[in-house]
Specification:
Layout lengths: L3 E4 L2 E4 L2 E2 H8 L3 E5 H14 L5 E6 L6 H9 L3 E4 L2 H9 L7 E3 L6 H10 L3 E4 L2 H13 L4 E8 L21 E2 H11 L5 E7 L10 H19 L6 E3 L16 H12 L5 E4 L3 H4 L3 E12 L4 E5 L8 H5 L5 E3 L7 E7 L8 E9 L6 E4 L20 E6 L2 E6 L4 H4 L6
Parallel strand pairs: 4-20, 5-6, 5-13, 6-7, 7-8, 8-9, 9-10, 9-11, 11-12, 12-13, 15-17
Antiparallel strand pairs: 1-2, 2-3, 4-14, 14-15, 14-19, 16-19, 17-18, 20-21
Helix pairs in contact: 2-9, 5-6, 8-9
Bound molecules: pyridoxal-5'-phosphate (PLP) and lysine (LYS).
Length: 413
């Protein structure tokens, strides 16, 4: 049974009506389902159970402490991309030896912090970064465990802004230069080579790019061992897509079927970095209609959530289904769901067939668990929404709605 469904015409999250939660906690509001989160992380753990595998949830998708802590209790590690994310992961109780650290621009302070915490490994994205990490490690009297992020030049067939494994992208080290870079790494005093890393993009809905990238990764692994360099970890990154509209992305089991038969004799631990496919469909954003407005050419539904609360439609033209919190059988309109932000690009849906919403109605913006709150901002001095975690018939506020005082914290006249 899905975690979000209608019962007697009312939208429920697990056993709670969305309307009742919003009456108490206000809007806009992010609501997550614990059951959906647990199901998703277990789907990965079970699919890969036959091989030593660390599922390092990519917390950039949603870094709420309650979610991190829940996933950690399910055995997950974390993929972080900043000192701030590392801090969050540690606050949530994630063991340091289950944390991997990627990103093209790690600062010396962030590197030192991660070394002191003793994380599992750094996923290194350039020659310069490798040198910096070695220097910082030597200064601290230690060695940094690293994987080099190898850019295989595979088209992930997703939005260009979130394609990361092509030649023209800023990520990773080109595969043709990677063996030489590993050889250089093996001579650096502060570096201990432990793995190979790859991540080709996000919201992948076909298996073929995973297969192409994985073929290249295995070929590279062979080349590296022939050059005398052994690794203990193969990090395959994240990127598995979810259903926003009608997509039918591969499942963790499909990924496992592709990968496991070919790694079983390599003597490596697998690392996976799923983000969106864990949290995306475990969360919704609820917005209340403030006004209706019709011009000569457009119908607008003006809600209380905008691009500052959910950026994906504005940034990528992304589609999120809209569901009425109270089911209607009445008229529909074709129009835009827009927010209060002073930008024409502030919309959650454009030219969309939707119920003829009236002021006061609640709309659930679906599939908003990933890259929703984590990309929210205070633009137009708007406090960010509260976040709610539903567990069966009860819920907890896992992040308070921001106040006006929060907006000016740290500022001085
Ligand atoms: C290095 C790395 N790992 C993991 C992820 C998580 O990706 P996704 O949310 O698509 O699973 C990303 C984001 O694309 C990433 O950059
Ligand atoms: N923010 C993107 C995904 C970014 C992936 C990060 N590497 C989205 O909402 O789809």
């Amino acid at each position: 049974m899905s975690s979000f469904e209608y019962r007697n015409g009312r939208l429920f999250v697990e056993n709670l009506p969305v309307e009742e939660i919003v009456e108490k906690e206000g809007s806009p509001l992010y609501i997550y389902s614990k059951k959906a989160l647990v199901e998703r992380i277990r789907a990965y753990r079970e699919a890969f159970a036959a091989h030593p595998t660390l599922v390092a949830y990519a917390m950039k998708a949603n870094g709420n402490l309650a979610i991190l802590s829940l996933l950690a209790k399910e055995g997950a590690g974390i993929d972080v991309v900043s000192g701030g994310e590392l801090f969050r992961a540690r606050k949530a109780g994630v063991p340091a030896d289950k944390i991997v650290f990627a990103g093209v621009g790690k600062s010396r302070e962030e590197i030192a912090y991660a070394l002191k915490e003793k994380i599992l490994m750094f996923n290194v994205e350039s020659q310069d970064e490798l040198d910096h990490i070695s220097e910082v490690a030597v200064a601290l009297g230690t060695q940094a465990p690293v994987a080099l992020r190898v850019n295989p030049d595979v088209d992930p067939k997703t939005h260009p802004y979130i394609s990361t494994g092509m030649k023209k992208s800023k990520f990773g080290i080109p595969v043709e230069r990677a063996v030489a870079e590993y050889q250089r790494a093996s001579t650096l005093p502060g570096i201990k080579i432990v793995g190979i890393h790859q991540h080709i993009g996000s919201q992948l809905t076909e298996i073929a790019p995973f297969r192409d990238a994985f073929d290249r990764l295995l070929a590279f692994h062979g080349e590296l061992s022939r050059a005398g360099i052994k690794v203990t970890h193969l990090d395959l990154g994240g990127g598995l897509g979810i259903r926003y509209r009608s997509e039918e992305p591969p499942s963790p089991a499909d990924l496992a079927a592709l990968v496991l038969p070919r790694v079983k004799d390599l003597g490596v631990t697998l690392v996976l970095e799923p983000g969106r496919s864990i949290v995306g469909n475990a969360g919704i954003l609820v917005t209340r209609v403030l006004y209706r407005k019709n011009t000569a050419v457009k119908s607008f539904v003006i809600g209380d959530a905008g691009m500052n609360d959910l950026l994906r439609p504005s940034l990528y033209g992304a589609h999120h289904d809209l569901l009425p919190v109270k089911e209607t059988k009445g008229e529909t309109i074709k129009g835009d769901l827009v927010g209060p932000i002073c930008e024409t690009g502030d919309f959650l849906a454009t030219d969309r067939e939707m119920p003829d919403f009236a002021a006061g109605d609640l709309i659930a913006v679906m599939s908003a668990g990933a890259y929703g709150f984590s990309m929210a901002s205070n633009y137009n001095a708007r406090p960010r929404p509260a976040e709610i975690l539903v567990d069966g018939s009860s819920y907890r506020v896992v992040r308070d709605r921001e106040s006006f005082e929060d907006l000016i914290r740290g500022e001085r006249v």
